[in-house]
UniProtKB/TrEMBL annotation:
Keywords: Signal, Transport
Alphabetized Pfam families for the sequence: SBP_bac_1
Organism: Streptomyces chumphonensis
Region forming the signal peptide: 1-37
Protein name: Extracellular solute-binding protein
């Protein structure tokens, strides 16, 4: 069972401007909000009176640490307004297994924050989900670009409300390294390669690549492919309606291979990249002993830069948008967490009230003010974000409108797009090691994809 794709919406191009109001209707405020506590089994303190006083909404999700604490603030707001208690269940990364066990044991949570389109499709296919109410759907249609609703829809039923997003089309760089090399942020992929060469010639490798984590390589490929091949082919490839042996895939691999083949451009060369995990890749650019000038990845790099390495965004750490390839549009690849309602959850009305709250700019503002968050809600006032770089990132995501595309590997079956040592992750690691034969790599990708989608 696959999601329904709104092709006409996807062709609509950039959708609208960012609206500068965070006001919600009285009805939205009356019904709004979700809840979660800092650990399994803990509950928030609700208002003494409220429409859902005496009810508990259990919310399951993968978040821990700071992310869970900040989401807790959203849930606390829901509890304060509605009187409902909230209980947060941390699932770890294996959401499907945990939720399946809870359903079988008769202890299903009301709401789950689903981190991948493929998992949402799986939940719907299993018959676990309640379609979202017409009120929630109406608010989502008003507050989000069509593409976000599309990714939450399976076989014509709207199940998943995207509350938290990631912007995975950013290249982070050291302003000091750029200044020493006498270069500026590039505005095309070809210019980025020229800039990389100049930085490397100055004595510092241009890129730090986290090749040990295969998911980062899928993100590299997706940005190149979306810009070079275009959104329609991206959609077809994501659903395996286009084979990975298509010429467009070979072309994207060829483009990416031009970078991977230049050991001088990579910190510690390709072999070193394959030993570098994601946090270390960021450290190699922004740590105390810089080993590269740039690192590609999403907005979440910013948290590492500031929290782990003490850099100041906009001063000694900056980013530029992943640049357009071969005259295409600059890509905006995203990811995100969708809230869904389980049909076996006990308090369905309170759960749907939480969904309505999550669709509001008020709920998004709570986490935006706390930090470490991007919202796809176009009604959220950008002043809610705490720094200029995050505001720029959020504005880029929202202004991309229906041209945004969800992470392709997250849409695929896990055996192909989400398992260490298998499928796309492993094949692209092999390609980083030896990028000399893009056509052979495309054939391997098609073989793995065909098996996974068939299964």
């Amino acid at each position: 069972m696959r999601r329904t794709t709104n092709r006409s919406a996807h062709r609509a191009g950039r959708a609208g401007r960012v609206r500068r109001t965070a006001t919600a209707s009285g009805a939205a405020l009356a019904l709004a909000l979700t809840a979660a506590a800092c650990g399994d089994g803990d509950t928030t303190g609700p208002a003494s009176e409220g429409e859902f006083s005496g009810q508990t909404v259990t919310v399951a999700g993968v978040w821990t640490g700071t992310e869970q604490e900040n989401f807790q603030k959203v849930l606390d707001a829901f509890s304060e307004k509605t009187g409902a208690k909230t209980d947060f269940l941390s699932t770890g990364d294996n959401v499907s297994t945990v939720i399946g066990s809870k359903i079988q044991g008769g202890d299903a949570p009301e709401v789950v924050m689903v981190p991948q389109v493929g998992v949402l499709n799986q939940f719907a296919d299993n018959g676990w989900l309640t379609p979202l109410s017409s009120d929630v759907e109406q608010d989502a249609s008003q507050n989000f670009a069509n593409v976000w609703k599309d990714y939450g829809t399976v076989d014509g039923e709207y199940y998943g409300l995207y509350f938290k997003a990631a912007h995975k089309s950013l290249v982070w760089y050291s302003p000091d390294a750029f200044a020493q090399a006498g270069v500026e942020a590039p505005d095309s992929y070809a210019a980025m390669m020229e800039t990389a060469g100049t930085i490397s010639d100055s004595g510092l490798p241009a890129f730090s690549v986290a090749g040990q984590d295969g998911w980062t390589l899928t993100d590299w490929f997706e940005n190149v492919y979306l810009s070079q091949a275009g959104p329609e082919k991206y959609d077809e490839l994501a659903e395996h309606n286009l084979p990975w042996t298509d010429r467009s895939v070979v072309d994207a691999l060829t483009t990416l291979g031009e970078l991977f083949a230049e050991d001088d451009l990579l910190a510690d060369g390709a072999a070193g990249a394959l030993r570098t995990d994601f946090p270390t890749s960021v450290q190699k650019v922004f740590g105390p002993e810089p080993q590269a000038g740039m690192v590609y990845e999403g907005d979440f790099v910013g948290a590492l830069v500031t929290n782990d390495f003490g850099r100041t965004l906009g001063e000694d750490a900056d980013f530029f948008p992943f640049p357009a390839v071969d005259g295409g549009e600059a890509p905006v690849v995203s990811g995100g967490d969708a809230a869904v309602v389980l049909k076996d959850g006990k308090n369905q009305e309170a759960a749907m009230a939480l969904m309505k709250f999550l669709a509001s700019p008020e709920a998004a503002a709570v986490w935006a003010e706390a930090g470490g968050y991007l919202s796809p809600n176009k009604e959220l006032d950008l002043s809610s974000y705490g720094d200029d770089l995050t505001r720029q990132t959020a504005e880029s995501l929202v202004e991309a409108g229906d041209t945004v595309r969800f992470d392709m590997s997250d849409q695929a079956p896990a055996a192909f797009g989400g398992t260490a040592g298998k499928g796309e992750w492993k094949i692209l690691q092999d390609f980083l090691r030896d990028p000399s034969d893009p056509e052979a790599t495309a054939a391997e990708l098609e073989k793995a994809a065909a098996a996974a989608f068939k299964g």
